[in-house]
Amino acid sequence: MRLTQTKAELRAAAAIRPRAVVMTMGALHDGHAALLAEARERVGPDGSVVLTIFVNPLQFGPTEDFDRYPRTLASDLAIAKNEGVDLVFNPSRDELYPNEPSITVHPGPLADELEGVFRPGHFSGVLTVVSKLLHLTAPDLALFGEKDYQQLTLIREMVCDLDMDVDIVPVPTVREADGLALSSRNRYLSETERDEALVLYRALSAGAKAGMNGPDAVLAAAQAELEAVPSVKIDYLALRAPDLGPVIGPGEARMLIAARVGLTRLIDNISITLR
């Protein structure tokens, strides 16, 4: 496994094909390991897997946790090596943004909904760094977790609209045995807060079970679970079509939730079949 920290080193690395990239902000956990394992499976033993580790300042708001976001490079590299990563790109801020960006990616109207209401500008920062990293790593495949479903949807739209020559591969959310979605921010939770956070998955599961009774029943079932834990402050609970447009008729849908547990903000989502 090779560690690179400059764009010149990255470009000089052997361009073995096919190539898959997994983009992260570090603080890797089993969810990231699942992305890396899927990447290795898809490119086969003769392909290459690239892992990027970069805490992207453009996607953090002024009151968010950029400075305290966990940075655990040594353990991240150990996980990467265990999952068969060939190349790690871990640039500094100055390396990736030598100048304050004057040109960024405009993510369109979907970026102003759901997460965008509470994190204005977030998705412009995400799509800008994803675009840069796709250009620098030149992959055939890029794998993203479904836990960040709105992000995944917007990345797919960007790749389609800008004719980027890469396949976007979604990977299902990885959960703890009790249903809590894996997240680097889970380490912020106290033991009590972690127990409280389980209400997010209970709400999503209750909504999924109510799918046979239609959208109103789905939202009511989820809301009933959430009301049982008032210490968890809900930013939004939404039911959308798979492309995050409005739900129209029966079929597949996606329920999304964001909430604050203590000082930690968590998101989750689940696929629902409406009848």
TrEMBL record:
EC number, UniProt record: 6.3.2.1
Quaternary structure note: Homodimer.
Functional pathway: Cofactor biosynthesis; (R)-pantothenate biosynthesis; (R)-pantothenate from (R)-pantoate and beta-alanine: step 1/1
Transmembrane region(s): none
Name used for this protein in its record: Pantothenate synthetase
UniProt-annotated binding residues for beta-alanine: Q59
Source species: Kribbella pratensis
Binding-site residues for (R)-pantoate, renumbered to this chain: Q59, Q151
